[in-house]
Design a protein that fits this description.
Number of strands: 10
Shape: globular
Helix content: 25-40%
Order of helices and strands: EEHEEEEHEHHEEEHH
Largest sheet: 5 strands, mixed
Distance between the termini: 47 Å
Number of domains: 2
Radius of gyration: 19 Å
Number of helices: 6
Structural class: alpha+beta
Length: about 210
């Protein structure tokens, strides 16, 4: 089952304190109605009853999908030993185990895993799209605000590189990226049980380490 608790939140705008419900864990196999609330971010939205300002309140939360066999720890901090030990039997059972530091990353990660994809493959496709965007002079690196996975259709990923209200879309064949992964399998190896944070910073760090050799 999903777990939640009540806590006191102080409105940054008016200073009014009020109670909010915070989810510590969401099991979408048991509570499928919570899935959309997590992906949309609604589960993290709270409105001050005094001044009506709304806020996105990110809290540590474990998201579990037993059917698709993955769990994601939403937290800005490294995972503690107790959570790693909890995840060990799931990792042995073949679960994908990840940490996301932001709500946006969590939403995208859920979509990636629901589409049946390897998130390492997706991050490599996003990185390749970013490099293609820069090399083909479609924009400057410093102007890029985000690189996002959108969806997969007919074994082709759609990646969006955004620069404010503009940008470009890239269609990346999955088999092409799979070959790239196979050629450097050791470089992209991931230890699931340790709740790795597989994102743009992670993949950039891999290439930086390779360049330093």
């Amino acid at each position: 089952m999903s777990d939640l608790h009540e806590t006191i939140f102080t409105c940054p705008h008016c200073g009014h304190q009020f109670n909010i419900n915070v989810y510590d864990a969401v099991n979408v196999t048991k509570d499928p109605d919570l899935r959309d609330a997590v992906v949309s971010g609604d589960i993290f939205h709270h409105v001050c009853p005094h001044c009506q300002k709304d806020y996105l309140v990110q809290n540590d939360m474990l998201y579990v999908d037993m059917e698709r066999r993955f769990m994601i720890w939403l937290s800005e901090h490294e995972t503690g030993d107790s959570l790693v030990k909890f995840a060990e039997p799931f990792a042995k059972a073949g679960f994908k185990i990840r940490r996301c530091s932001t709500i946006k990353e969590l939403s995208e990660k859920i979509q990636v895993f629901e589409d049946g994809l390897d998130d390492v493959l997706v991050e490599l496709a996003k990185y390749d799209s970013f490099i293609d965007f820069i090399n083909n002079k479609k924009g400057k690196a410093e102007d890029v605000t985000s690189v996002e996975y959108q969806h997969t259709q007919d074994d082709v990923m759609k990646i969006n590189v955004r620069t404010g209200d503009k940008g470009a879309s890239f269609l990346i064949p999955i088999n092409m990226v799979q070959e790239e992964l196979k050629s450097e399998a050791d470089l992209y190896k991931v230890e699931d049980v340790k709740f790795p944070c597989i994102n743009d910073k992670w993949i950039i760090s891999l290439f930086e380490k390779e360049n330093q050799k």
